[in-house]
Design goal:
Layout (H helix, E strand, L loop, with lengths): L1 H27 L6 H4 L1 H4 L5 H8 L53
Length: 109
């Protein structure tokens, strides 16, 4: 029993010394190139703009989605979304734009 404990203690101490030695060796390395050349391995560990955008996103749902018995827009129940005024923006090219008398249109509206 004692020999197993001593054996495991020796193994743990050797592992800790090897880890510490590799860390110190990593810190003492010098690079005579550019920052990008020296830090190629660390580049993938740095935070990118995309991951930052994902973290900035809101991680909750709006209270309106929690009410399944209410319509999404302020339309009546069973009414299509195109008929509800608040769902769709107004048409940018209405069918009848009207005509001024100065242009001598047929309808003179």
């Amino acid at each position: 029993m004692v020999s197993v404990q001593i054996y495991s203690l020796v193994i743990l101490s050797l592992l800790s010394f090897s880890t510490a030695a590799s860390f110190v060796g990593y810190m003492d390395t010098t690079c005579n190139g550019s920052i990008a050349e020296c830090n190629k391995e660390d580049e993938m560990l740095m935070e990118s703009d995309i991951s930052r955008r994902f973290l900035e996103q809101k991680r909750y749902i709006s209270p309106g989605t929690l009410k399944p018995d209410h319509p999404v827009c302020q339309g009546a129940s069973g009414e299509s979304y195109s008929n509800a005024g608040s769902c769709l923006p107004p048409s940018s090219n209405p069918h009848d734009r009207g005509c001024s008398k100065i242009y001598r249109c047929r309808s003179h509206s």
